[in-house]
Structure formats: C-alpha cells, structure tokens
Amino acid sequence: MAKTILIVDDSGSFRQVVKMALQKAAYEVVEAIDGQDACAKLDGRKIHLIVCDVNMPRMDGLTFVKHLKTTNYKFTPVIMLTTESQEAKKAEGRAAGVRAWVTKPFQPSQLVDAVAKLCAA
Amino acid sequence: MLPASTPDASTSQPTGQVATVLLVALGAISGWLIGILQPPAWAAALLTAGWVIAIHAWAQRKRSVAGSESSGDEAAASAPLVEGVLPIWRRHVESARLHSEESMGQLLTSFGTISERLEEAIRYTQGQSIKHQAPSVESLLSNHDDALKSMLAPMRAMQSTRDDVLARLDALGKDMADLRQSALQIKQLSRRTTMVALNASVEASRAGEHGSGFAVVADEVQQLANQCGQVAQQMMARTATIEESVTSSRLENASLDRSDDALQSQAEAAARVVVADLLGDLSQLSRTSRELQAAGTAVQEEVERVLLNFQSQDRLSQMLECVTKDMNLMSEWLEQGSDLGAEQVDAWLTRLDASYTMEEQRSDHHGNTAIQRETAIEFF
Q1: Chain A neighbours among B 334-373 (CB < 8 Å)?
Q2: CA angle, corner B133, sides to B131 and B139, nearest 5?
Q3: Span A12-32, mean pLDDT?
Q4: Minimal CA separation from B102 to chain A, in Å
Q5: Which of B99, B101, B103, B108 is the mutation pick for testing A, counting most A CBs within 10 A?
Q6: Which spans in chain B are helix H?
Q7: Beta carbons within 8 Å of A61's beta carbon, 6+ residues apart
Q8: How far does the CA of residue B92 sit from the closest CA of chain A (Å)?
Q9: Per CB distance under 8 Å, which residues of A are interface residues toward B?
Q10: A105–B375 CB contact, under 8 Å
C-alpha cells in the first residue's frame, strides 16, 4: 500500500514540484496551503510523513510543527523544506522535533531519498 | 535635484551677500583703527587672526545652514511624490509577483503532464523491448521452432497418411504375388489332372465296352481340368494386372513421397525466411523502441531539470514580497510624516535585514558576492 505524504507550502508551484517528485516515487500526496490548512487535513487519516515550508501566511511551519506535537500525529516525521537558512530557525525546528531540514532549491531525488529514509525509520 | 528646491536657494543668497559686505566693512574698520592707534605687533596679529577665524567660522556655518535648508526643503518637496509613487510601485511589484506565480503554476502543470506522459511512454517501450530481447534472428528462430513445427504439422500428417497407404499397397502387392502363385499351382494341378484324365481315357478305350462308362468320367474330368486351367489362367492374368497396378501405384507414391519431402523442405525454408524477416523487423522495432526509450529518458531528465529551475519562482516571489512589505512600511511612515534621523535609518535597515530568509537577500542587502550553495539535507 502506498504511503501518504502531507505537503504544506503556500507556493502552488512548489507544491506541484514536490508532488510530482513524490508521486513518481509511488507516494500518495495530500496538499495544504499553510499550517492552518494542514491542521484541517489531519482529520484522522494515516499520514506517514510531512514535508513543510517555514514561512507561510496564517500559520507558519514551525508553529504548525509545535502544534503537531500536541496531536495524535506527534510521532509523524517532519521534513522542513524552505528557503530559510538561518541557524536560529534550524535550531528552533530541531527543538520542535523536525527530523530534517532541506534548503530550497532542492534536487527532487534527494528529497525522495530523505522521505524514503524517514518513512522506513 | 528637484526644481522645487531652486527658489529657496535663491532667496537665501542675498542674506549671504549682505553678511559678506558687513564682514569686509568691519575688517576695513579694524585695519583703519590699527593704523590710527598703532597697537603693538602681537596685538595687531591677534586681532587679524581673530578676524580670520571669525570669517572662517561664519563661512562654515553659512555652508552648513545652506545645505540643511536645501536638503530639508528637497525632502519636504519630494515627500508627496514618494507617497504617491511608492504605493503604485508596490502594486506593480505585487501584480508582477502574482502574475509570474500564476504563470509558473500553469507551466509547472503542463510540464508535469508532459513528464507523466513521457514516463508512461518509457514504461510502455520498456515492456515491449523486454519481449524482444533475443540477441539474434537465429536464436529467435530457435526460440520459435515450436511455432514453425506446428505450422508444418498438417503437411507432416498428410505425409504420414500417404506412408500408411504405401505400406498397405506393399502388403497388397505381396498378397497378389501369393495369389498368383496359388493360381499357378492350380494351373499345374489342372495340367496334371488333364494328363491323368487322358491316361484314364486311354485305359478306358483299352478296356473296351467295359470301360465306356469310365471313359465318360475320364472325359468329364478332363473337361473340368481344362476349365480349372482356364480359371487359373484368368486368375493369373487378373492377378498380374492387379499386381502391375499396385506396383505402379507404389512407384508413383514413392515418387510423390520424394516430392513431398522436397516440398516440405521448401515450405520449411520459406517459412523460416518469412519468420526470419518478421523477427528481423521485430528486432529493428525493438532497437528503435530502445532508442526511443533512451530519448524519452533524456527528455524526462531535461524536464526534471526544468522543474528544478522552476523552484526559483518561489524564491523570486519571496524576494518581491519582502520588497513589497518594506514599500508598504515606507508608505505608512511617509503618511505619518515621521522624522527620519540617523538612528531610525539604522533601525529600519536592521529590521529589513532580519526579515530576510535567504542568503541571497542578505548578500544583496550588504552588496556582497552572491553565495553559490549546493543542495543539502541536514538530518537532526
């Protein structure tokens, strides 16, 4: 059975790039346009991994990850996929339980490898 | 500089001229007093130095005042223009950002569809090439030998039936020979019986009247023997005719058998040529398919590179958004008419610097060389 990945990014084009890369690797994809939308998508369905941007309107990525830890999805691994490269933000992400930090632009194959690694763990 | 500041500069010019004339007049009066009062040399030098310092200080103040008045007037004059233009620039930048994002989204969808179609085509050609991976036509023929045999099976069955008929004709020929031999024996028996009947007739004639009855019997026996001989002769003739026909049929069948072998060989060779041509075409098709597959893979890789480059849209969008936000703040600040001292400028630039998310933005802000960063994944 295909594993389901939740993509959270306010950029439609970026969601499309990530979606294509993951679908090609036989993953099922659920999309959310920001942290608030992602919270609504966590409706009990099985999510194997979350790929999340940092800077988004309404609810940013790090706030969403912190909220995630209070839900039934607290053990779901999260990869931050962002243009944000400040060490302070990375440290904040690490403290919030983020498992990997990918800085844009990224190689789709590298992202797929990271997703496979964290899904298998 | 803006034309609005020019009248202010011209109005401050007469005041400066009056002050200069006053200074020159005071200098002349001082010189006249020194000439009349004849003060000591050190006092005259001190007075002159004092005047020089005073004139220099006045000149500096004049330049400073003129400069501050000019820049203040320019700022005051240009503020409405900036207030008017800044929101327009902001709207233009925002509009450009939205348009480019929308266009990139549509382009991405199109490229995504192309990539999916290519992947399907490659998967299909991969499936086809697997079926035709035999290295040569000969080995393909060998692989399809069963099919060739089944093609020639009806011909082989017909030949087998003919062989059976031929065997039966052989057996019939042997039976005919036996029958002819039997007829020959009957004929010989008939001849001997005739001889016996002839002897019996001779002996009956010797016996005279007493042998007349026996002579009749001997005559009858001779007639029967003659009839048997005739029947045997007919049987022999008929058997010979049949045997001749059987022999002829056997020869004909043997000839046909040889023709069938040749025909079968020809048919098999022709079938092999046809199948070889067919498999040759299939091999060519398979090669073409592999070439198409390679070309498709190359195009797909290129599409993936294009998709990678599309990620710049998100970066561009973030850069423009950052500039738009700052324009917005500038516009609000101008509307409030706040004073902008050196401290506020520093605070503004520090806040702007802190709002960046990308290294490129920071590099651009500080005028550094752009950083070439490799894609990297940090696992925590």
Answers
A1: 357-359, 373
A2: 110
A3: 90
A4: 8
A5: B108
A6: 6-37, 41-131, 137-143, 145-206, 212-310, 312-336, 342-354, 359-366
A7: A8, A35, A52, A53, A54, A55, A80, A82
A8: 20
A9: 11-14, 16-17, 20, 24, 54-55, 82-86, 90, 93-94, 98-108, 110-111, 114
A10: yes
Q: Which two tokens stand for residue B1?
A: 């500089």
B positions 224-263 inside 8 Å of A (CB): none
The shortest C-alpha distance from A98 to chain B (Å) reads 7
Mind listing the pLDDT tens digit for each residue in B148-160? 777 777 777 887 8
- What's the start-to-end Cα distance of chain A, in Å? 17
Euclidean distance between CA atoms B233 and B205, whole angstroms: 30
Q: Which two tokens stand for residue B312?
A: 């710049």
Pairwise CA distance, residues B22 & B209, whole Å:
216
Task: For residue B303, name the pLDDT band (cuts at 50, 70, 90).
Answer: confident
User: CA-CA distance, A99 to A77, in Å (whole number)?
Assistant: 6
- Please name every residue paired with A81 in a beta bridge, in sequence order, or none if there are none: A102
User: Quick check: helix, strand or coil at residue A34?
Assistant: coil
pTM above 0.80, yes or no: no
User: Contact A83/B314, CB-based, under 8 Å?
Assistant: yes
Cα–Cα distance for residue pair B235/B187, rounded to 1 Å: 10
Quote the minimal CA–CA distance from B94 to chain A in Å: 15
Cβ pairs bridging A and B (under 8 Å) = 89
**Torsion from C-alpha of A80, A84, A87, A91, nearest 10 degrees:** -30
Residues B350 and B132: their CA atoms lie apart, in Å, by: 68
Q: Residue B311 is nearest to which of A14, A54, A93, comparing CB atoms?
A: A14
Give the Cα separation of A12 and A56 in Å (integer): 12
Residue A52 · residue A80 · CB < 8 Å = yes
Q: Cα separation of A86 and B356, whole Å?
A: 9
Higher pLDDT, B26 or B267: B267
Q: Is the CB of A105 less than 8 angstroms away from the CB of B104? A: no
pLDDT tens-digit series, residues B223-273 = 888 888 888 888 888 888 888 888 888 788 777 767 777 777 787 788 778
Question: Does B311 lie at the interface with A, CB-CB under 8 angstroms?
Answer: yes
Q: How far is CA B53 from CA B22, B116, B363, in A?
A: 16, 84, 48
Check CB contact under 8 Å for A102 and B313.
no
- Which DSSP state fits B370? P
Measured CA to CA, the distance from residue B85 to residue B73 in angstroms comes to 19
Q: How many residues does chain B have?
A: 380
> Nearest CA to CA, how far is A11 from chain B (Å)?
7
A41: CB partners within 8 A, 6+ apart: A6, A30, A32
Q: What is the DSSP letter of A103?
A: E
